[in-house]
Amino acid sequence: MIGIARWACMLPALALVTVAAAGTQTPGVANKPLSVILQMVEAKGTRTVFSAENHRGLWEVVSCERRQMVCREDAIDGVSGAVRRSERELVLDLRPPATAKPASGIARGIEAAGLGDIRELEWDTRAWEARVRNANGRAELQVDPMTGAVRRCEGPGCRR
After folding, report:
1. How far apart (Å, rounded) are the C-alpha atoms in residues 160 and 155?
2. Residue 30 confidence (pLDDT)
3. What is the reported pTM?
4. By the 8 A CB rule, do 158 and 130 touch?
5. What is the pLDDT of residue 46?
6. Could you please report the per-residue DSSP string of 43-106?
7. How many CA atoms lie within 13 A of 18 on its CB side?
8. For position 23, what pLDDT does the model report?
9. Which long-range contacts (CB under 8 A, 24 or more apart) does 57-61 make?
């Protein structure tokens, strides 16, 4: 009986550790929209966002100086917008053209269209690719870099 009582006393503490380790947010506290997170990164000088991916409430955002090959990957808290860690990143891929809409504008368009929660946004040669999740499931979008229009939508999340 003593063993069961000891185990029962440990359950609340174990639950708290599990929640903290999973990186879940506090109930009732909303994440900032991805467009706001990206706008904060773009506002830091002359940085162009290359990609953003959500991992347990942290946005891993890769951005590069426009005129140089100096890139950074910042882990940004989705609730507060605070940079949790930042490290230099080597990016050899092509970046969006200077005439393209910034990543924050692309994310804002997806959010405004109500296509779902953005899980990932990445530049891929000639278009932005986004992965979203909504009530119907997941969807992969290809977005025009100049207009922000969705060129292609694949997956069950595309159904309305």
Report:
1. 12
2. 67
3. 0.78
4. no
5. 74
6. TTTTEEEEEEEEETTEEEEEEEESSSS-EEEEEEETTT--EEEEEEE---SPPPPTTSPPHHHH
7. 6
8. 41
9. 57/23, 57/24, 57/25, 57/31, 58/23, 58/84, 59/34, 61/37
